[in-house]
Amino acid sequence: MRLLLWGLGVLVLAIGAFWLWVVWPSGGERSERRGPNGAPEAPTVAEIAPPLVAAPALCVGREAGAPGAAAANAASLSTLAWAPFGKPEIGWEIYALRIAAELGTSCAAGSDGFAAALARWQAANRLPRTGVMDAATFAAMLPRWHLSRPFVRLNRDGICPGAPAEDALAMARPEEGHGGKTIQLRPAALEAYRWMAAEARAAGVLHRPEALRIYSGFRAPDADAQRCARDRNCQGLTRTICSAHRTGLAVDLFIDTAPGFGPDSSADANRLAMARSPLYRWMVWNAGRFGFVNYVYEPWHWEWTGEPLLPGTPIASLSQDGAERLTEPAEGSTARTPDAASGARSRR
Ligand SMILES: [Zn+2]
What we know:
Blueprint: H1 2-32, H2 69-76, E1 81-82, E2 89-90, H3 96-103, H4 112-124, H5 135-146, H6 150-156, E3 159-162, E4 170-171, E5 184-185, H7 187-202, E6 214-216, H8 221-231, H9 237-241, E7 250-253, H10 268-275, H11 278-286, E8 292-294, E9 301-304, E10 310-314, H12 342-347
Antiparallel strand pairs: 1-2, 3-10, 4-5, 6-7, 7-9, 8-9
Bound molecules: zinc ion.
């Protein structure tokens, strides 16, 4: 009997030890390596580019912000009347994910946790610690986001980066281009895109067949300049005189669309549809791991930062033909602050 009890004891201990061995280490590791949406995280690409957004902290929902701040944010999310990019907009939901990433919180925009994180950020940036989202706080965040783009940093110094020779570009596969478009990128940028797209697919955030397809990559400066002069509408610097797409590192990606809009329409309803998509949420938190940074006004426009820009020329030395007329862009075109140097301009 005593032998039987002893045997049972050993058996229980052995099973317990085995269970601990199986569950403990791998369980702990798995929970650390999950993204905000529960998707497994890929290996870091810190050797390519440093992470550009912080990993999200858990939302601490009961943490108190300033009194009433959460309610104010919940209301202003869809009612704030402002002009963050020069044209009137209502609400700030389009930018809420990017703001949350800046704050390092996964809390929803109308929550106490978000308000508390915002109050901390405001205090750290010498703004009134209200916990309430407002134009002044956004204006303090915007330069940080612009300056995460090497292209904007170079533009700020009056330089337009050089364009790669076409034979130095890689061609995307037909199924990677949207609508059968031929897409060229610098080879390493294309590789990074493919890695990111595979991870997005694995994370289950590609809900539409077109999701994450590229509809614009490298655009030759000459062709852009000719169109600029022909159409007499360059949108200033942004589209044609010095577009980020000349670098072979910028991509316009299909994120999502509102009914009746194209993937590059800057109509607020369309940008809001993108901002609400699981894909954009995933991109905001994860694209930095692959070296991509976003121009926040355009949820579709991403620039790869894994290789240096090519030596450039002074912007003042480039043809300004067609740039003198700044007309309001048609609905469905890229916006008045699109795709490029606008970041540097709007900051000044
Ligand atoms: Zn673009």
